[in-house]
Amino acid sequence: MTITNPGRKGRFGWHMNAVGIIGAAIILFWMVVAIAAPWISPYPVGKIVDFDYYGPMSSQFWLGTDYLGRDMLSRVLMGARYTVGISLAAVTLACFVGVTLGMIAAVIGGWFDPVLSRFLDALNSIPSLMFGLVVVASVGSSMTVLVLTIAVLYAPGSYRFARALAVNVNAMDFVTVARARGEGTIYTIREEIFPNIIGPVLADFGLRFVFIVLLLSGLSFLGLGVQPPNADWGALVRENIGSLSFGAPAVIVPSIAIASLTISVNMLIDNLPRRIRDRSD
Amino acid sequence: MNALIARLVAKRLGIMLISLLIVAFAVFFATELLPGDVAQILLGQSATPEAVAGLRKAMHLDQPAFLRFLYWLGGLMTGDLGRSYANNREVADLIAGRLANSLELAFVTTLFSVPIALTLGITAAMFRGSTYDRLVSVFTVSVISIPEFMVATLAVLVFAVYLKWLPALSVANDVHGLGELLRIYAMPVITLSFVVSAQMIRMTRAAVIDTLDTAYVEMALLKGASRRRIVLKHALPNALGPIVNAMALSLSYLLGGVIIVETIFNYPGVAKLMVDAVSTRDLPLIQSCAMIFCVSYLLLILIADLVAIMANPRLRNQ
């Protein structure tokens, strides 16, 4: 599906096709919305502005109104903050921990590697939505709990991925040379291993972000994620699920928002220039 | 050779047991984080301190957490899942009927999605790069990257709201005849099939394409065999192991999907039971349901592993 264009190179030394650029643009759009939400939403998020509930799309309320008569556009814009923010925090934490541990395990080896790998594999075999349910049931739901729980769930996968890449790089000559020079573990990881796995790790970061957005939306949909009066996109679908039978925009719009974000991340990753994605090959 | 396979199977089983132990540990201590005294919560505000102390003793709450973990684990082994906090019934009784419902749902979904996914996956690999293949790819990527509840809501919108073919809710206790049974299962099964088969199609396609890239398939091509013959006679028998492996792995996506689907369609299964238990903070029930999920997940992964070992002699030498 990828259209390779080896002849042309962009300003950064590589070229990306149209599908990838559209994906990147949509992601950028949601990032900007997440940051600027309070200033660009037409109505205050919690304010009931319409006497009618589940209002249709109109020039006054672009995306209709929700089950209390609040403006959907404002709520979706603010929802971007929670969905994008929490997911980004969780995926950053998960990948940071996972990749660091993965590189350490690959470089140190010894007993550390198999013990850690077994343990994290076991953690990996916990179905994520179910574990989220268990944790939220016991400690309640808050932003911190959500970010930490999700990070714990996704760090093992990131570890596994980074370790597999790092083991390959670790066997290469330049790493042996660095060792022979007498470089320490930290230097080897930072200067020799990490720069050589960064491309695939970034692609993995994106995929993991998609899974996390889906998990967070699922949790919120079950009423266990972001708590009212705040709402991320999953919670917005939950709030307005009652309008499903007459197909009001209130339930469809947040779903579309989630789908647009996750699909565009997939589009971007699938169309990343080979040079970035497969750098270790 | 059989002894070797037996040893590998034993090794996998051992790994699974260790994983299970760690999972049990995680589940138990995650639920132990609950603030507040369970005995106090159970007896309510008006309970005397003696009554609370008595209940604490009866529930082993006065003992250290690790001992309680061992008690709980021992109980699980012997089939004693404890009592529900919410209505003081045996957890085993609560779960038994629900588990049958969930397994039925999973079984019907598997029955539907496997043949569809196999056909689509194999044909997409056969005509790799064609418009048909692209359509299938776009479909699978879309389904994978949208949340399960969106698939469910779309299914409700299309089949229940616009087409009015099916009821939006499924209530399994007033069933009269086969037609009604089909109508009740239809929505949950359609949703789950979409979620599971998208994964299955992707993995099946990848498995077949992997074998299509081998030297013997190229040889068959050079000999002038037709595409149909190459795929069905040369590639497919060799891709069978990876395909079954892929199917077992994608069925594990049922577990995530089933939680959402049972909640949306109000289907009386284990997942709905667990979600309800979460809202009442009924810990023994949550723990047991969580363990059921983890065990079934690990079993599916184990099956996938074993099939891979059986099908690929090269994996036996690890």
Automatic annotation (TrEMBL), chain B:
This is ABC transporter permease. InterPro entries: BPD_transp_1_N (IPR045621), MetI-like (IPR000515), MetI-like_sf (IPR035906). CDD domains: TM_PBP2 (cd06261). It is found in: Cell membrane. It holds the Pfam family BPD_transp_1. Residues 99-304 form the ABC transmembrane type-1 domain. Keywords: Cell membrane, Membrane, Transmembrane, Transmembrane helix, Transport. It comes from the Bacteria.
